[in-house]
């Protein structure tokens, strides 16, 4: 038989906030984009530099003054002991490409995230 995987249609304006090859959306959806970039940075920091969730895209908006994004189809970059996450996993190159474009803001500072692309072996 056949297998199918799908998701519900996301209603609204679809926006790409970052990509797996270093694109960082700095012009559209300012606060939404800042949150997405901080999230990608957060995943790198909290995984001790072994993983990064990127390719963040979906429908963004505001509800009662609170920004939200319904995201779909992310990509993970991996390094170290983790297995690769498909062809879009660009490993060290993808992680460094993100950090070449990313500028830490208030959220990164509030979360006390490391500012550099640390590609030495992580220490737990």
From TrEMBL:
Keywords: ATP-binding, Kinase, Nucleotide-binding, Serine/threonine-protein kinase, Transferase. CDD domains: Alpha_kinase. GO terms for biological process: myosin II filament disassembly; response to differentiation-inducing factor 1. Residues 1-116 form the Alpha-type protein kinase domain. InterPro entries: a-kinase_dom (IPR004166), Alpha-type_PK (IPR051852), Kinase-like_dom_sf (IPR011009). One of its GO terms (molecular function) is protein serine/threonine kinase activity. The keyword ATP-binding applies. This is Alpha-type protein kinase domain-containing protein. It comes from Strombidinopsis acuminata. The lineage of its organism: Eukaryota, Sar, Alveolata, Ciliophora, Intramacronucleata.
